[in-house]
Amino acid sequence: MPSDSNEWMSAEARVERARGLFQSGKLEEAAAELRRALASEPDRGDWHHNLAVTLDALGRHAEALPAYECAIELSPGHVHALLGAAQASIRAGDLDRCVRYCERAAKGDQKIEAAYSLRIMALGMLQKYEDAESVYFLAQQYLTEFPLCLAEMANVLAQQEKFDRAIWCYRESLAQNPKLPTVKTRLGVVLLRAGQLESAHQVLMQALREQPGDAGTLLALGRVLEGLGRASEAEEKYRRIVELEPANAVAHVRLGNMALRAGRLDEARANYTLVIALGVSDMSVRLSLIEALTRSGALVEAGRHLDELFGKGKAKFSGGAAIAEDPSIALGAAGAAIECGRPAIAVRILVAAAQRHPKDERIWIRLTRAQFEVGNQRGARRAARRSLRLNRTCVETLHNIAVDAVAHGKTTRELKRAHAAVTRGLLHHPTEQGFRRLRLRIITLRMHAALGRAHALLLQSITRLREWFTMQRL
User: Fold this and answer.
1) Are the CB atoms for 238 and 251 separated by under 8 Å?
2) pLDDT per residue over 93-106, tens digit each?
3) How far apart are the first and last CA of the chain?
4) Whole-angstrom distance, CA of residue 354 vs CA of residue 51
5) Strand, coil or helix: what is 122?
6) pLDDT tens, 366-422?
7) Per-residue DSSP letters for 354-386?
8) Which of 97, 297, 308, 375 has the greatest CB tally within 10 Å of its CB?
9) DSSP string covering 385-420
């Protein structure tokens, strides 16, 4: 009996020591002490909770979740253990389990905001937007202030692109708690997405003053400055991120994109190559690298990358999602493929891009050319028609149609089609020299065709005359 008492007292002492170690930042030692205490007293739910919190602080989230669950099993009404398990479930990707834990926590304490805010977050990630909004209204019934719920509801609304409501929720959240981390940055991003660049700039500058080295804020501010046409300032922000976080792939991509647009091709290549070396497999980065290589004259290397991505034996290209954000990347890569003598690859890229951006005239123009390059006249004409639906006076498309018609103008019908295409082009663009040259070419072809027909008729007449004279002699 005394032995048992001493063992119990030893475990209590270890837990007290672990608490002191945790407060002084010695997390590994704190976790070790808690494990020793639990080895003696495994039925203490509160100790399992302390261990879970310590493991979370160490970043060992996969180990924290079982510890939270042990605490809940031993102490079913432990609200903080339930909320810790809910957070750990989100990190583990088990969003439904997070919702269940939050519901149990709210039953235990209706006044604890995290029980609602975490549930709103999980439901938003599950795209159950109406359920998330119901939880938000439920929180209002029990809480006088709910800044976390407002912030999470704003995130849900932003996912649905309901920017006005999202902006209101973010501002109200900050009004209730101005010190909430990342909320100003999120507000700035939504203002950017809503096209309110000046307001986004003001909010993000304020956020940056409060957190000078925050990479997320610097990145969002850089994007805003790009939108405002202040490229040099945007580039400065991205370079600051790289100084703080040399392996920040997003900042390197933005720097690569800016260098590519400015024609600094070596710099663009270096940034994209670094991003790929960091293990980023984003299709858009590979396509941008290919464009940079092509424009710098490294066609062999660009062709090698194209073949790796889209060459023979590869699965059907499904890169629509990869080029969804910026269709100009697909246009650049398709142009590179054509320059490298791989028009079939250009067609595959542009078909995927057209599916994602059916109203982007540039894609249909480039697709028309690519289809002509591979000899697919039917596909080219279909793409040209789509282009003309968007812009009936498009010079490039009308010119492509006319060139194709002239190239295949061997019959009277094809020459008529060529003439109609050029006439239409000149109607909308009477000073376009390309159409004038094509019209001259069509006139020449039609004259040759007419002379050919006349020559054929003459030969036919001579043949008939000979036959007639032969019959007369007989």
Assistant:
1) yes
2) 889 999 999 999 99
3) 144
4) 53
5) helix
6) 888 888 888 888 888 888 888 878 877 777 777 676 666 666 655 666 667 666 666
7) HHH-TT-HHHHHHHHHHHHHTT-HHHHHHHHHH
8) 97
9) HHHHHH-TT-HHHHHHHHHHHHHT--SHHHHHHHHH
